[in-house]
């Protein structure tokens, strides 16, 4: 769930993830779509139609009369009468057509003769209620508004006599994995089944477990000496910040801009977060092989190489140096629609801040939760303070039930390597709401189709999930 500039070497399945954006944002979907669309480009997309639906700006206040247009895609060529409806819910990013052309939901639709839809989340991609995302304009952005938008979409689809009696299966990954589960929770009359893939359903401000899992992944699956090497590099960074000479040397070694004040605590914290993000992506999107490859690279270097292409422009192209300046970074965030939208959701609903407050401190302890609270305040205004963020987190967990949602016919799927699994459901909620944790797998991998490099455990999990869905919708034959 965060922005990643990725080079995907399909031949070796080595995913090298660099330069994530920071700040607890997920953006798994941006990543997923990038990959799935690259794969899907191999297939014909002429069957996928783009549609628009007018939605109220505020689903819960009838006195607000403004509206906006939500984008969605549909694909009906495999549908046969009485076939189910599949709705792929997009999350925090631009929607693409890829998951209507390949992936697990596509296979399910094919095997059960289903109709497929894919909806774009309000405030992301082309589904924009406003041109200008000021704090005032962002107040209609929330998971509950998005769920209500999707409920209206399903109702509209089911108005058609074709789909009147069709079962409805919703699918989502990452933040949208939460949304899929919560659709079933809040709209059980409209939704029959949900696949919640890698959904961090528990909101939490200080999400220290994230870096703890990254650390565990490298300790457990890294090459010999890798963990110690990483630890040494980060301790050295920490020591360098203690003296003026150290900072001077660090600025040279790390190509940091002369003007960037690295005595400023927030800039130092940003530096540590940026360096840690080079490992976060490998744990979140990689596999055992990519962890080993990353270790090899680390063993060859005495520093952690920083990405020169992330959306926050930490690398200043004009000046050819890294500018770890907190204030300029906030300005960059404000200029990117999906980024400011997602950060708004973390500041108002979920937190998810990847801090270093763990006992297992591979990356030292220089990324406090205050960094993120400051980000909220500096981006949206003084009222977006710790108190408000903590209240938002509490409210989300009360509304959706945290790790114990009152749902049936929802499957919660997670990858063992993926740090997000720590906020998700790993044990069956009930017989009808099972959990599936996949060894050696990462974020949302189950939503893809089988590839030859996939571990057997992952392929088996996909078969199991498809079996559950078919069983729950009562599809003719549902052998595993
Ligand atoms: C967006 O709104 C802000 C505050 O009202 C204003 O300063 C800014 O110029 C606007 N930007 C655009 C692109 O309209
Ligand atoms: C690390 O160095 C070795 C020996 O010089 C080289 O063979 C290998 O390709 C390097 N690995 C990476 C990932 O740079
Ligand atoms: C769970 O949901 C069911 C029906 O959807 C409802 O009857 C029951 O009261 C709910 N349980 C709790 C603890 O909210």
From TrEMBL:
Keywords: Glycoprotein, Hydrolase, Protease, Signal. Belongs to the peptidase S28 family. One of its GO terms (biological process) is proteolysis. GO terms for molecular function: dipeptidyl-peptidase activity; serine-type exopeptidase activity. This is Putative serine protease K12H4.7. It comes from the Eukaryota. InterPro entries: AB_hydrolase_fold, Peptidase_S28, Ser_carbopepase_S28_SKS.
């Amino acid at each position: 769930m965060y922005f990643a500039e990725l080079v995907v070497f399909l031949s070796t399945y080595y995913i090298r993830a660099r330069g994530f954006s920071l700040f607890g944002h997920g953006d798994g979907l941006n990543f997923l779509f990038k990959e799935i669309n690259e794969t899907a480009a191999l297939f014909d997309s002429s069957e996928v139609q783009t549609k628009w639906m007018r939605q109220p700006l505020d689903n819960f206040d009838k006195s607000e009369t403004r509206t906006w247009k939500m984008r969605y895609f549909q694909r009906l060529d495999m549908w046969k009468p009485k076939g189910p409806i599949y709705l792929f819910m997009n999350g925090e990013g631009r929607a693409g057509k890829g998951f209507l052309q390949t992936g697990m939901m596509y296979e399910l639709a094919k095997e059960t003769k289903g109709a497929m839809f894919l909806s774009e989340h309000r405030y992301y991609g082309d589904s924009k209620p406003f041109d200008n995302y000021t704090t005032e304009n962002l107040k209609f952005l929330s998971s509950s508004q998005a769920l209500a938008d999707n409920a209206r979409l399903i109702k509209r689809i089911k108005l058609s006599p074709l789909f009147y009696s069709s079962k409805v299966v919703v699918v989502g990954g990452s933040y949208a994995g939460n949304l899929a589960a919560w659709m079933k929770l809040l709209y059980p009359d409209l939704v029959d089944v949900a696949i919640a893939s890698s959904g961090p359903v528990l909101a939490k401000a200080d999400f220290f477990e994230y870096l703890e899992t990254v650390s565990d992944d490298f300790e457990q699956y890294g090459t010999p000496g890798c963990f110690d090497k990483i630890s040494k590099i980060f301790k050295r960074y920490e020591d360098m910040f203690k003296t003026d000479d150290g900072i001077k040397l660090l600025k040279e070694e790390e190509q940091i801009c002369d003007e960037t004040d690295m005595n400023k605590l927030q800039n130092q914290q940003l530096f540590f977060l940026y360096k840690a993000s080079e490992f976060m992506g490998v744990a979140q999107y990689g596999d055992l092989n990519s962890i080993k490859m990353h270790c090899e690279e680390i063993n060859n270097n005495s520093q952690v190489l920083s990405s020169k292409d992330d959306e926050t422009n930490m690398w200043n192209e004009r000046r050819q140096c890294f500018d770890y300046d907190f204030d300029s970074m906030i300005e960059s965030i404000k200029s990117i629609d999906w980024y400011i939208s997602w950060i708004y959701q973390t500041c108002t609903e979920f937190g998810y801040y990847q801090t270093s407050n763990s006992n297992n401190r591979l990356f030292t302890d220089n990324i406090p939760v205050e960094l993120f609270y400051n980000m909220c305040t500096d981006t949206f205004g003084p009222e977006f303070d710790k108190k408000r963020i903590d209240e938002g987190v509490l409210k989300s967990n009360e509304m959706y039930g945290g790790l114990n949602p009152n749902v049936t016919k929802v499957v919660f799927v997670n990858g063992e390597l993926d740090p997000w699994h720590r906020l998700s459901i790993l044990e069956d909620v009930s017989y009808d709401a099972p959990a599936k944790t996949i060894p050696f797998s990462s974020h949302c991998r189950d939503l893809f189709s089988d590839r030859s490099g996939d571990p057997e455990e992952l392929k088996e999990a996909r078969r199991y999930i498809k079996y559950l869905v078919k069983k729950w919708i009562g599809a003719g034959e549902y052998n595993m």
